[in-house]
Amino acid sequence: MKSIKKYIFAIVLGLCVGVLTLVGQKYLPMNLNFLANSGAVWLIPAFLLSYFEKENRLQAIVNTIVCLLGCVYGYYIFEAVLNHHAFTFSGGALLWSGVALIAGVVFGFGAFVANQETSKLKYFGMNLLPAVFTAEGLDNVIHIEDYSHMIPAVIMKIIIGVVLYLIINRKNVIRIKNLLSYAAITVLGVVAFAVLFGNI
User: Fold this and answer.
1) Where does the pLDDT of residue 118 fall: very low under 50, low under 70, confident under 90, or very high at 90 and above?
2) On the CB side of 172, how many CA atoms lie within 13 Å of its CA?
3) Roughly how many angstroms between the first and final C-alpha of the chain, as a whole number?
4) Burial classification of residue 191, based on how many CB atoms lie within 10 Å of its CB (0-12 exposed, 13-18 middle, 19 or more buried)
5) DSSP character for 127?
6) Where along the chain do its domains lie?
7) I need a labelling partner for 46 at 20 to 30 A (CA). Which of 16, 20, 56, 90 fits?
8) Sign of CA dihedral 113, 114, 120, 124
9) Half-sphere exposure for 76 (CA within 13 Å, toward CB)
10) What is the DSSP letter of 175?
11) Is the separation of the CB atoms in 10 and 49 below 8 Å?
12) What is the pLDDT of residue 200?
């Protein structure tokens, strides 16, 4: 019963984030609009939810997936309501559902190992959020011709990634394992964004 309540909370949280995303896309000014157009932003509540719940590995993964799917369907269902058309499982909804499943596994596992003091993968978990923002910003830089109208937003993504790294790892900022983990995940993130947006 306790697990069911957690999953219901994850769904509700995801739905709210999805709705707020659409509202942000409509009303945020250009230089802040990236906050509502970045997949990385959805990962923050999903990751933190599982991290602070301190669940076992499977529960953390399932909880993260459920939250991210809530984000996807909260967004697309509210978009259908707002624009007065029936909700359908469009290509976009299916694509982002697939991304939610994959990201849910990665970030759910990351949230779990970030809580394990003795785990060799602890740094991997702790650096996932900083790396995904940095990677998205770097992907934008690589394809700057598509983002020339929002250069401040591109820079802000990278800054958010670096600041998150400094905050999360404030006691081990210059530790080699930490820096290598952050750099490696960032590189993998750049590759993942390239695959997602069809640039590979």
Assistant:
1) confident
2) 14
3) 44
4) middle
5) T
6) 1-115, 118-200
7) 90
8) positive
9) 17
10) -
11) yes
12) 65
Q: How far apart are CA 188 and CA 140, in angstroms?
A: 15
Identify the three-state secondary structure at position 15. Answer: helix
- Interval 70-93: pLDDT, tens: 999 999 999 888 877 777 777 788
The torsion angles phi and psi of 115, rounded to 5 degrees, stand at -90, -5
Q: Residue 17 contacts by C-beta under 8 Å, 6 or more apart in sequence?
A: 42, 45, 67, 70, 71, 74
The greatest distance separating any two alpha carbons of the chain, rounded to the nearest whole angstrom, comes to 53
Query: Contact, 14 vs 70, CB < 8 A?
Result: yes
In Å, how far are 59, 64, 169 from 127, measured between CA atoms? 20, 17, 8
The pair of structure tokens assigned to 101 is 């499943």
The beta strand positions in 29-187, using DSSP E, are: none
Contacts of 169 (CB under 8 A, 6+ apart): 126, 127, 175, 178, 182
- Residue 147 three-state SS: coil
Threshold 0.70, pTM exceeds: yes
